[in-house]
Records
---
Amino acid sequence: MTAALSPAVLDVAAWQARRRAHEQRVDVWLTPHLARRRRGERHPVADFLFTYYSHRPAQLRRWHPGAGVELHDADPAEFGRDYRATAAGVTVDTDGVRARRGESIAWIRGLLSATAGRTPHFGCFGMHEWAMVYRQTREELRHNAWPLRLTPERTAAIVEERGVRCSHFDAYRFFTPPARPLNLLTPTRETQHAHEQPGCLHANMDLYKWAYKMSPLVPSELVADCFELARDIRTLDMRASPYDLSGLGYPPVRVETVDGRHEYVQAQRSFAERAKPLRARLIAECERLLPA
């Protein structure tokens, strides 16, 4: 038995205004990215969400009202296979979509609920990005079009001195092989629910992934809110990394210093506070979509 969703009806003016506002909002992020892509240019900060995550720009731009919303006088062909016609217009085929994705939604709810229930930790100081370049040659660096702020030897020494306290599997899996034994944990996909915690930059960035994986069952405005948070987090992530991106307008957060670590933790705490209501909204969406 699945939970019933009380239908809400949006008239033409209302749903078209919401769609237009969403498109205008995301175009601010999409237009520069698509222009760079046409020119064959890469940006290590602004392009990350479009290259690391599987949600394509056109998918992010496409507006969905969410499950249980009926769009008056809308054309089903305009909205795609996950919609069905109603007497008044169209609505998401909620039963059809959650029949295919119910297991995934339950997994996402479990992860988000477990993460939300933990005490946040703020002692990693961004060393995950340093572990991704640990003992690499210039040619091996993922972003080797940009220099490191310190010498390779000094970069490696910082990792060894500070240690690594990364709880996020999808960050840990990009560590260089010699960096992995330096991590306090050995996270795996199977232990993801047991390790993720709400202070982690990458766990909070991934709220975008969990939001778009539930599209079109969740409103596109929620997906865009999570994207915006992830975009801001990525900026801190790379400012605190070993790379020198000052030429792109990103002054470093020097986590190898006491002042830099303090700056990092303050920003990390702020992102955790911003993530909290978004995580709660996603959990609520999961719960209204899953069996009662």
Note: The beta strands are 8-10, 69-72, 83-85, 89-92.
---
Amino acid sequence: MKNRQKIRIIYTFLISFLLIQVVYPQDTILPLWPADAVPNRIESDEVEILEKGAIQRISYVQYPQIEVYLPSEANSTGKAMLIFPGGGYHILAYDWEGSDIAKFLNSKGIAGIVVKYRLPISKSLENNQFVPLQDAQRAMRLTRYMAKNWNIDDNKIGIIGFSAGGHLASTLGTHFDDEVYKYVDGADLLSARPDYMALVYPVISFSDSSVHSGSKKALLGDEPDNESITYFSNELQVSENTPPTILFHAADDKAVPPENSLLFFRALNQKGVPAELHIYPEGGHGFSLATKNQSLSRWTQHLYEWTLQF
């Protein structure tokens, strides 16, 4: 048996073992890919960096993964949301827009699954611009594959993304059917389409004047061609099959102007996709749970109430 086949068998066994043995499911961490089958990965001397501080920052992700936080079985609604932290495609604000969000969702009976996706500025990658989408598609498929083990309804799996993570979430919501990597295992037979989508101060457009230049450069490089700009300007990629969406933004966001959310909301309306948009008077960019702003902090309750329809 070839080494590659052996490694994949071991990978499948380890996932099954973890699902049986895990005592504290909120601490379940699973790799997205077998170690020998991470698409677009090339060997380099680069290493992942974790910076601890007021916000935990992760950069140069080498091996993407999902970290699963589950509510108690008694509180579970059967719903789940994959969470894509932001960071301009340079870093992941991993607790601020990741694990903290998962814990909030748990308090509402919703499983929170934080996606540690690879960042396109890494020199461990080739054809970098498609790598975050590869990880996002795989994360959704792997979650559906594992759903029964986590008391999740595989038809009630949504996504939420923040800032550049919002760009990745909206990319998944518009490009879920695109074939961006080769089949790995049975999980890849499942749909990558989210059942619903929440976008929080998201980067959306790379073609409009409201573009976030840092995210655009990180994902597409210094001189992207028009085809790439169009493909990743997600307001131009909305279809009738884009999942129902709720958007949150602050009017005074200078980093990622609210026009990004407005463009996406308008495109959803034009395609007949159910959509809801909340723009708050103030809050700037990167407010996460907004625990220190009484008015803005209501966005989390609005999110929860919106999810009740699914």
Note: Residues 90 and 119 are 6 Å apart (CA to CA).
---
Amino acid sequence: MDTTAHRYGDPEKFGRVAVMMGGSAAERAVSLRSGAAVYEALKRAGVDAIAIDVTASPIDALANVQVDRVFNIIHGRGGEDGVLQAVLEVLGIPYTGSGVLASALSMDKLRTKLCWQGIGLVTPLWRLLQSEADIDGCIEKLGFPVIVKPAKEGSSLGMSKAHNRDELLAAWQTASGFDCDVYAEQWVSGKEYTVAILNGEALPVIRLETPHSFYDYEAKYHANTTQYHCPCGLDEAQEQSLKTLAVTASEVLGVKGWARVDVFIDGNGQYQLIEINTVPGMTDHSLVPMAAKQAGLDFDALVWQVLETSLV
């Protein structure tokens, strides 16, 4: 008997698993890397897994395939925003991660902030930028510096830091190319943390440190200068408070299975919620596997536990 394949339990309970990756969003390349890593981990664990590169409609991608469940690792729009989840609900196929509503809400950083604000959780001040006419009002409300973001992109795509009016205008123009709401957010001076959530529990907190102006796409996926601190350097009480906040922030949005919450602690010690990812990266630079490792879960065990969320 192959004991490696069964060290987490019986892989046959999952049936045939489609690892859906790729997609047509801006994060396609990252998703393909995440998907390849997840697929290999499932195969090592004895799971009957197939890899599906979704290049257009997820309905077409599943048309001639018989599967019992889906491991969704499509980052960004089309995979993380409720679209794929809705397709799988209609087809009656169980899947990993959050449902339609939580996925749609969490993908939209503006609506996420409104939900958090509504329950009294702190998130940085922001201003919606719908046209050049909003620039001066934004400056009056937020001052400088600010960070400008497209509301429905991940991996820091389309984001820019602005220190003056010209930079703010250029940042708005850049973010406007992503076909969604654009907003400027007050810059938070402080330390950046991320908290992975697995089955409603927070994994060890990671502190991020980068010489870049912020934790951008290059710092996330290519740079060797980004530092990841886990243990994060907070005392036990602070780390527990941060974990509790992250779990609450995810529960407010109805998030299930797994996720990753990004938080700053500003110079006054105030926790400031930034965003939440419901299909986090699983590449060699990704944060959830780092946190899991600190908690004693290797990559294969993490993938297995995420897949188990599709059984609930």
Note: The chain has a mean pLDDT of 92.
